[in-house]
Amino acid sequence: MFAKNTELNLFDIILQFIERTTKRAVSPCVFIAMGKLIRCISTDGTLTIMAADTTDIVNEAANIHQTSAVVSAALGRLLTATSLMGSALKGKDNSVTVKINGGGPAGTVLAVSDFQGNVRGYVQQNVVEIPLNKKGKLDVSGAVGTDGFVTVIKDLGLKEPYIGQTPIITGEIAEDITAYFATSEQTPSVVALGVLVNPDLSIKAAGGFIIQLLPTAMEDTIEKVERCIKSVEPVTKLIERGMTPEEICHYVLPEFEIEELDSANPVYKCYCSRSKVESALISTGLAELNDMATQEKTEVGCQFCNANYVFTPDDIKRLIKRATK
User: Fold this and answer.
1) CATH, residue 245
2) pLDDT tens digits, 164-203
3) DSSP state for residue 3 in the 8-state scheme
4) How far is Cα 225 from Cα 4, in angstroms, rounded to an integer?
5) Quick one: 2 and 140 in the same domain?
6) Can you tell me the distance from the alpha carbon of 197 to that of 195, in angstroms, rounded to the nearest whole number?
7) Which DSSP string do the residues of 229-293 spell out, in sequence order?
8) In which domain, by residue range, is 88 found?
9) How far apart are the first and last CA of the chain?
10) 54, 164, 203, 237: least buried by Cβ within 10 Å?
């Protein structure tokens, strides 16, 4: 039963439909925050590399969710990884959802991207205050936890979405995404992610890169990649120095000649709408709708962008009519 002045969590209601929200969107909430993303391939056809500067996107997410420093770092890393993964999708209606829950105090951290890398995210507990790790850095692993799974849901326009799940390795997210690629997609990868948070909790730098070997890669390709990444600085330092995603790609792989495949300017974009919320409410069933109709009002808040949708008893009664047609 819902309490009087019912407040519903949109995230909880439509999570089962989330991988298909992109293609059903009508009027997405687009925020000004814009990132920079590029995808490249080596001229010998042995690997790809994609890199992104997501500083503004992560800053927007931190503002929306009012996250503490370590939660901003966790959410920002996942937003960056998901945006990069989304940019590799083939179809304009494709989307990817990445969820990680390691039993830590931050709870579930989730991000969704469309094929252009436009991304939105959510974290279950926005404020977590824990000590720095042994290296004096934000303890993302401590906030996320290590007792759980990384779940990836890809909507490729087929009857059923692709779902892959792998155990969390470190809770630092980059290593966990690397393990997912190796185990679930059988793709050897190098994933680097980073978020640098200012004392005032704004985002100073955020971004990442993903290197993936192609089937044509030989043993010498692996050796070259290992040599290249051995001395690579943290991605946040590169972005802080003003390096572009393209420059980062060349910096990370100096032993390879690479050429651009495509580039994009992804944004923080939410696809919630009143019509989508109405469909979600109808999906709860007639019993719940009838109960809502007896309440003073029903409120549904979007956990991705903080939009709030209010339904009066008359609104609910109209939904009941639609549900019984």
Assistant:
1) 3.55.30.10
2) 999 999 999 999 999 999 999 999 999 999 999 999 999 9
3) P
4) 59
5) no
6) 6
7) HTTPPPHHHHHHTT--HHHHHHHH-TTS-EEEEEEE--EEEE---HHHHHHHHHTT-HHHHHHHT
8) 29-270
9) 24
10) 237
